[in-house]
Amino acid sequence: MKFGIVVFPGSNCDRDMQDALQNDLKKEVIMLWHKDKDLSMFTTDDCIVLPGGFSYGDYLRCGAIARFSPMMQSVIEFANKGGKVLGVCNGFQILCESHLLPGVLLPNGQQQFVCKNSFIINDANGKALKIPVAHGDGRYYASEEVLNQLEANNQIIFRYCDEKGNIDPAYNPNGATRNIAGIRNKAGNVFGMMPHPERASNKELGNMDGLEVFRIFGMN
């Protein structure tokens, strides 16, 4: 699997993601500038990554301007053809603004930027993973109808929890509805999450739980 990482003005986790994929997962990585359009070097077996940061300075809503960049038009087409797309933090916001994923990321419930380790759990995995968060607009929200559809289709891939895996609002860093930390689309090829697995994928960082996140996405 080959990876393409889209770089927007304001991206600040693009090199972190490159380092994790290239050096920790030993994958081929191609950096993609937001003004370009060409994805012809990728097949639907590959993955395009939208990294964290503050694309276009987070003017209007987070991800709202990036959604209209030339490269994102190609990414939308790539996803609609079945190609894999992963959005982390600001990348998750862009995926929701692009309607590749349902719902929206609202300002944190406490109205403050949060930067700390959090624990998340995947129902199928059953193990709490320690993954850092760093965002001001990470509160996932969707209508009850959409939330019920996500539940019914097993599209909620991560929820915030305590270190033992108990899903408890007290350990939700942003007030996200139903403790949602990450979701996928119904087809299962587009993924979005607020926590940063690329910041927890190397023993020198003191945490390798991020590698398990990539494995759950089928990207190891």
TrEMBL record:
Origin superkingdom: Bacteria
* Cited InterPro entries: Class_I_gatase-like (IPR029062), PRibForGlyAmidine_synth_PurQ (IPR010075)
Q: Which reaction does it catalyse?
A: L-glutamine + H2O = L-glutamate + NH4(+); N(2)-formyl-N(1)-(5-phospho-beta-D-ribosyl)glycinamide + L-glutamine + ATP + H2O = 2-formamido-N(1)-(5-O-phospho-beta-D-ribosyl)acetamidine + L-glutamate + ADP + phosphate + H(+)
Coiled coil regions in record: none
Catalytic residues (UniProt): C89 (nucleophile), H196, E198
**Record keywords: Secreted included?**
no
Which compartments does it reside in?
A: Cytoplasm
Q: Which CDD domains match?
A: GATase1_FGAR_AT
Please state the Enzyme Commission number of this protein. Answer: 6.3.5.3, 3.5.1.2
Q: Does the keyword ATP-binding apply?
A: yes
Q: Which SUPFAM superfamilies does the record match to this protein? A: Class I glutamine amidotransferase-like
Q: Name one GO biological process term.
A: 'de novo' IMP biosynthetic process
- Function (record text): Part of the phosphoribosylformylglycinamidine synthase complex involved in the purines biosynthetic pathway. Catalyzes the ATP-dependent conversion of formylglycinamide ribonucleotide (FGAR) and glutamine to yield formylglycinamidine ribonucleotide (FGAM) and glutamate. The FGAM synthase complex is composed of three subunits. PurQ produces an ammonia molecule by converting glutamine to glutamate. PurL transfers the ammonia molecule to FGAR to form FGAM in an ATP-dependent manner.
Q: What is this protein called?
A: Phosphoribosylformylglycinamidine synthase subunit PurQ
